[in-house]
Amino acid sequence: MTNDGGKRDPSAKRDKSAKRGLTSAEKVLGVLSLFSTERPVWSPERAAVRMRVSLATGYRYFNTLVAAGMLEKLNRNRYVLGPAIVELDRKVRAADPVLKLAQPVMERLLRRLREPAAILLCRYYRQKVMCIHQETNRGGEPVSSYERGTLRPMFRGATSKVILAYLPPRTIVDLWRDHRREIVAAGMGPGFEDFKAALRALRREPVNVSSSEVDAGRTGIAAAIFDASGRVNGSLSIVLLSPPANKRAVARLTMAVQAAAREIERGRGMAPTKAG
Amino acid sequence: MTNDGGKRDPSAKRDKSAKRGLTSAEKVLGVLSLFSTERPVWSPERAAVRMRVSLATGYRYFNTLVAAGMLEKLNRNRYVLGPAIVELDRKVRAADPVLKLAQPVMERLLRRLREPAAILLCRYYRQKVMCIHQETNRGGEPVSSYERGTLRPMFRGATSKVILAYLPPRTIVDLWRDHRREIVAAGMGPGFEDFKAALRALRREPVNVSSSEVDAGRTGIAAAIFDASGRVNGSLSIVLLSPPANKRAVARLTMAVQAAAREIERGRGMAPTKAG
DNA sequence: GTGCTAATTCTCACATGCTGAGAATTAGGC
DNA sequence: GCCTAATTCTCAGCATGTGAGAATTAGCAC
Asked: pLDDT tens digit string along B171-192?
């Protein structure tokens, strides 16, 4: 799904999974990850080649995805991601307790800001950080790169680093194994011990402030959000579109984002619908 | 996906599809439609019972969906729809040319309105109408029932009726077959000829105005949006939260929504990315 | 309309791999 | 660190997914 070139989820069992071929349903679902912003339209033929299946099977896959609404036939030979996805995301939003809690807090936080900024709610997803919700005091456009569903780099930017700092040890090990190069480039190397030390350092500050690490000229001020059992759930961050005026301004925003994160945490507790 | 109780897509071949059982991938995808706003959390066991498969297979289905990111394990026994859906919807939005064109038009249209209102962009989807985008001049909350991904009834409300009016004959026949009761209740019966006459009547007006058909006290003013080959693509509508002041106000809004729809249509033409 | 070509479905035989039942194992909670 | 429920594993049997190619359909040009 992450379009990372077909690399399997590294948090899955690493021992035997490599051997066994993909199940049929996995291959069908895999078709969805062919679709990207750069290449939003696919034909069954081209997909069949990419998935290493016959043309007939390519059509079979597309047909079952179309039947599920996950794909939509634009016209002869041209398919795009389908409306079922839109409907599903609505359900995801409706079922997300953190989003529900965070939204009003984010709106309130934004209203207190005088400078052009965006407030971001993000979470960890597959060795990256995904934007869940954005509030902005501009006409939307200038910060559109942070909209819901966008992925951000794991090791750069306050939004990500504040999550990274608190990820469970297993995940940290996996990240080191899979992204050593990137970690070193971000100044958290060169060894695993250095990386862990960098994370400890991040944990010492309640809020992370980073400038121009993702987008030039932008400053992120981020606080982690924890769930009831103390695990990191995501992050809340203020993204300033232009460099902050002075130290005092940064201090003020630091306080504000931290307070907002704590407020979101306070709202949790009531368990969502019970599963049977 | 529409949660319509497992009813199959009626636009599919109706002759032989009934006989053959579901393919494996179809069943896996079918699991996703168990999740709803009312019941957002499922266990593999309960899903296995609902899908008429063994417990082991229930776990297998959940595992492949989790591997694809379509489901996420909250904790032991509790699964929710996963972040891959969020990521996919981002791609859907990025690939939607109508949305891209409509958004600025909708913002501009909204700014011209003095009264509390929402502007809706909608489309046909599986015998219903789905909201694709919403712009509102209130604090979001009071019109939240129209947010992206929401389904609206096919035969009530201006937003839907203006689409219904131009659906292809095949679809109309299917709708009559599957929703006769509802159509009659909406005053478009009692016979198929009456239904077709009602649609003709709708087509005679460029804009449809309906009051309190979906939500009490609300008025919808909607215009159809057509694609380059003249097929109905969706609808643009103004939803007034309180009854309009007078006839003149309605006439003004009618003009405005129609002009906006034409503006969106004018923007199309440039073909999206070519498929291979 | 008529014909052309490419897209799409169909047929069928084969073997892959999905399935259910139950045993074995793992993991949370007290 | 126990205990019970959750989850995975094993395995045999057969349903069904698969590829190759033929048959059909649908869009498009003239």
From this structure: 899 999 999 999 999 999 799 9
> In chain A, which residues have pLDDT < 70?
1-20, 139-144, 269-276
User: Is the Cβ pair B43, A273 closer than 8 Å?
Assistant: no
Higher pLDDT, B16 or B221: B221
Q: What pLDDT does A270 receive?
A: 42
Separation of alpha carbons B1 and B21, rounded Å: 18
**Model pLDDT, residue B77:** 93
* DSSP state string for A66-113: HHTTSEEEEETTEEEE-HHHHHHHHHHHHH-HHHHHHHHHHHHHHHT-
Q: Find the CB nearest B90 among A83, A90, A148.
A: A148
Q: Give the per-residue pLDDT at A201.
A: 95
Task: Look up the protein residue whose alpha carbon has the minimum distance to the C1' of C10.
Answer: A56
Q: Inter-chain contact A90–B148, Cβ cutoff 8 Å?
A: yes
Element (H, E) at A183: helix A169-185
Which tokens hold the place of B15?
A: 């002759």
For A73, list phi and psi in degrees, rounded to 5: -85, 115
Reduced to 3 states, what is the DSSP secondary structure of residue A144? helix
CATH architecture of A96-267: 2-Layer Sandwich (3.30)
Contact assessment for residue B90 and residue A149, using Cβ atoms and an 8 Å cutoff: yes
Tokens, residue A28: 């069908």
DSSP state at residue B21: P
Which of A42, A68, A82 is the closest to B275 by Cβ? A42
The whole-angstrom separation of Cα B148 and Cα A93 is 10
CA–CA gap between residue B85 and residue B58 (Å, rounded): 20
> For A24-86, CATH number?
1.10.10.10
B97-267 topology per CATH: Beta-Lactamase (3.30.450)
